[in-house]
Amino acid sequence: MHTARKALPAIDPGRCTGCGWCVAVCAPHVLSLQVQGESGWGPKRSTLHDADGCTGCALCALRCPFDAIRMVRVSKPKAGA
Ligand code: SF4
Ligand code: SF4
């Protein structure tokens, strides 16, 4: 089992422009640009697609020029997934 505590990036889709900087700096490649929601169309926003693979390094939050990523402590890696 993974460690029970870490921080995960919470991306604010209202602030994210889809510029892709966070995707570029994420070493384990767990961020990607994806269309939000079920409709299958619309602007792409940064998405954490593999919470287990995220190391919690916070580079994405530091790199985001639009202050769209907040690191949020979670007690279990799979909480809310
Ligand atoms: S760096 Fe910020 S604005 Fe750019 S895609 Fe990532 S979350 Fe969105
Ligand atoms: S905290 Fe680090 S590992 Fe996790 S999504 Fe951001 S850049 Fe990637």
Automatic annotation (TrEMBL):
Domain named 4Fe-4S ferredoxin-type: residues: 7-36, 45-74
Highest rank taxon of the organism: Bacteria
Keywords of the record: 4Fe-4S, Iron, Iron-sulfur, Metal-binding
InterPro entries, per the entry: 4Fe4S_Fe-S-bd (IPR017896), 4Fe4S_Fe_S_CS (IPR017900), Fe-S_Ferredoxin (IPR050572)
Protein name: 4Fe-4S binding protein
